[in-house]
Amino acid sequence: MVTPVPPVRAPHTPTHGAHGQRLVMINIGPQHPATHGVLRLKVMLEGEIIRDVEPVLGYLHRGVEKLFEDGSYLQAIPMTDRLDYLAAMHNNYALCHSVETLMGVSAQIPERAQYIRALTTEVQRIASHLLWLGAFALDMGAMTVFWWAVRDREGAIALLERLSGARLTYNWFRIGGVKNDLPPGWLEECSRYIRYMRTRLQEFDNLLLDNDIVKLRTVGVGPLTKEMAKNYGCSGPMARGSGLDWDLRRDEPFNPVYQKIKWNVITRKEGDAYARFMCRFGEMTESLNMLEQMIAQIPSEGDYISPEIGEGPRQHRVKPPAGEVYAAVEGARGEYGCYIVSDGTNRPYRFKWRAPTLHNLMPLNEMVRGQKIPDLIVGLGSIDIVLGDMDR
Question: Vertex 193, ends 166 and 163: CA angle to 5°?
Fold first, then answer.
């Protein structure tokens, strides 16, 4: 005899707020420009006041981590490009750094290759922050800033295109180094871009940093305390904007070049949207300073990939020893990490990607509760999410 199962009661959802007003649930996204991708926000409103926000993910889920386990480590590199596609070089780096750590060959990477990696990492950081700046300005209703940012980003994209032949998904890092050496004149072109961007950042500074409208829309909006940032696992400018002085380039060095140059970790204590804005703006200036020093220090000769590991078909035959590893790099949005379980073959037995934007999005509800919908848009924009990285 089959015992009937009682129906499961739906969870109780309050219908009225503290002030007696009826609560209304509205959807923002998944097809809305202000969500920066296919993100759906279930927003519970009491009048104009936000009482609850629930991010709904998965609209861009592609099962990438299982696809990683279907091919060689080399074949996984172009798939990392499709995660955070606005900082694809950082994704490439995270995977290669993890495999190198598991193999114990980090010390074998040639000095010139390390400098090339650091150069491209910082050029990519500038390109990513510029696009964020333009999109964030659009969230506040400023169209001009978007056109300026896209125009200035073009110089960084052109530098990366000369290296890889691609403008968005580069597939350029390799285990033990990079795919090819710097083309002739690349360093000179990079120096010209640095000089150009210094004048452009000054114009952005004049327009935005002390702008009354920008401050009205961002100061005190989307507050995130230092303790909340730690508890949610936030990283990158999201955490540093809340006073969390943590940067993997300094604190867990994945590239020795960062110990050979002088630079500062940009932090703010306020924890609001304006603080995160200031962190990213300051990081672009620091990246320009780093690039200048790297160009002056890079060895004129040397290998761009470890001869012991090799390039071309030899990359397909890379077989890390059986074991597991977690390693990470400091990307544009925070800690890009890879957890790999190896069974000793040229394919990962298990692969898990740490997406910084997923952790950074989680405190959104606490950040905007009690504020209004325009504040939600600005608070979400200040996080700098990329759905390809978040959903995978």
Answer: 25
Helices 73-80/88-103 angle, 10° precision: 150
Task: State which H helix or E strand residue 178 sits in.
Answer: strand 177-178
Q: What are phi and psi of 300, to 5 degrees?
A: -75, -20
CA distance 135 to 145: 9
- Residue extents of the structural domains in the chain: 64-391
Report CA Rg, the chain: 22
Q: Could you tell me whether strands 323-330 and 335-342 are parallel, antiparallel, or unpaired per DSSP bridges?
A: antiparallel
The pair of three-digit structure tokens given for residue 25, joined into one six-digit string:
């649930």
| Full-model pTM | 0.89
The alpha helices in 109-211, defined as continuous H runs, are 111-139, 143-164, 186-204
Cβ atoms within 10 Å of 373's Cβ, excluding its own? 17
Query: 215: closest CA among 140, 283, 266?
Result: 140
3-state secondary structure of 176: coil
| Angle formed by the axes of helices 143-164 and 111-139, nearest 10° | 160
CATH 1.10.645.10 fits 64-391, yes or no: yes
- Say whether the peptide bond before residue 183 is cis (omega within 30 degrees of 0): no
In a 13 Å sphere around the CA of 122, the CA atoms on its Cβ side amount to 26
DSSP H helical ranges for the chain: 64-68, 73-80, 88-103, 111-139, 143-164, 186-204, 212-218, 226-231, 237-240, 248-251, 273-297, 313-316, 356-361, 364-368, 373-383, 387-391
**Torsion (CA) 104, 106, 110, 115 in degrees, nearest 10:** 170
Confirm if 380 and 364 have CB atoms less than 8 A apart. yes
**DSSP category for residue 169:** -
pLDDT digits (tens, 9 = 90+) for 163-201: 988 888 889 999 988 999 999 999 999 999 999 999 999
- Confidence at residue 10, expressed as pLDDT on a 0 to 100 scale: 43
